[in-house]
Amino acid sequence: MALLDVRDLGVVFKRKGTRPFTAVDGVSFSVEPGQTVGLVGESGSGKSVTSLALMGLLPKRGAEISGSVTFEDTELLTLSDKQLRDRRGRDLGMVFQDPLSSLNPVITIGLQITEVLERHRGMSRKEARVEAAELLDRVGLPDPQRRLDEYPHQHSGGMRQRVLIAIALACRPKLLIADEPTTALDVTIQAQILSLLSDLVSETDTALIMITHDLGIVAGLCDNVNVMYGGRIVERAARHDLFERSRHPYTHGLLQSIPRLNAPRGEPLTPIRGSVSDNIEWEQGCAFAPRCPNATDVCWSEPPELKADDGRMLRCHNPVALGDAVTEGAL
Ligand SMILES: Nc1ncnc2c1ncn2[C@@H]1O[C@H](COP(=O)(O)OP(=O)(O)O)[C@@H](O)[C@H]1O
Ligand SMILES: [Mg+2]
């Protein structure tokens, strides 16, 4: 049975005087216990709104949420704020992009961790302090005892992200959602944080939803990958299938815009032309049509459905021919 089951999730932002904006549209996916699932797409494709909606963290006013999100046997979308807060603290952890704004600047790192341990795992202050030092040690912070009494600003971005991961794991969540956890960090630190995350989730059998605009990140981490475009999932496949033969022209384009180590010297990268602002409405046709090299008349006039195709889910009238796919070895 799935740990998390997202069915037909929709989020429409409505503000007085503006046209309603559909940020997430009919998104369905599930996460098995211990599995790592990727949610990938360009900035603005609806990844963060999806994760905030399923964690119950979108503002009540102005955001209309539809569909269903079940975690184990509980429907999350209809829980009260208090029930949801409790559930979040206990079973669902989250790591955000910006580690500084997620930490309280005027409270020591130790207190920010022990607070969680006392509230959600019923520890005494003393027990919590011991456990907090252990957690900091596990996320690779040297001299954890001393760190406990320090403040967030005394640490670098990479260190702060380690602290946030420690806090997220403090409750031993069954599911961790990491939203662009390394985007704000240096490239060398990114790799360390990713391998740390990957080690921790496999050691503790925690399921992970990895949200990123970077296909290179999911290549090394995820069992299953959902590619989002304009608020909808356009392709979903097992990692290997996706990288071996991506079928959606958007996924294909993303893969071709990743620098490859074995590319001939001087070979230019092929970026996807245009930007998300060129999208047409999904109601009208395929939102990606204006940027798509494969687009034909049907793409401009008929919204493609998400359908099983070639061992994956695909929303496309004119998928990439099999012979044209980029191979995983190329990454
Ligand atoms: N609170 C909000 N009110 C109105 N529009 C929003 C709000 N939050 C996000 N959006 C819009 O929803 C779309 C998806 O945003 P987001 O999920 O943050 O994208 P990303 O894939 O980069 O995480 C964007 O066009 C964004 O401008
Ligand atoms: Mg985002």
From TrEMBL:
Q: Which UniProt keywords apply?
A: ATP-binding, Cell membrane, Membrane, Nucleotide-binding, Transport
Residue span, ABC transporter domain = 6-255
**Descriptive protein name:** ABC transporter ATP-binding protein
Q: Sorted alphabetically, which CDD domains does this protein's record hold?
A: ABC_NikE_OppD_transporters
Give the matching PANTHER family.
DIPEPTIDE TRANSPORT ATP-BINDING PROTEIN DPPD (PTHR43297:SF2), OLIGOPEPTIDE TRANSPORT ATP-BINDING PROTEIN APPD (PTHR43297)
Which NCBIfam families does the UniProt entry name for this protein?
oligo_HPY
Where this protein primarily resides, as one coarse class? membrane
Gene Ontology MF terms in the entry = ATP binding
Its subcellular locations are: Cell membrane
Mind telling me which InterPro entries this protein's record contains? AAA+_ATPase, ABC_Ni/Peptide_Import, ABC_transporter-like_ATP-bd, Oligopep_ABC_C, P-loop_NTPase
**One Pfam family per UniProt:** oligo_HPY
Q: What membrane topology term does the record carry? A: Peripheral membrane protein
Please name the SUPFAM superfamilies in this protein's record. P-loop containing nucleoside triphosphate hydrolases
Which family is this protein grouped under?
Belongs to the ABC transporter superfamily.
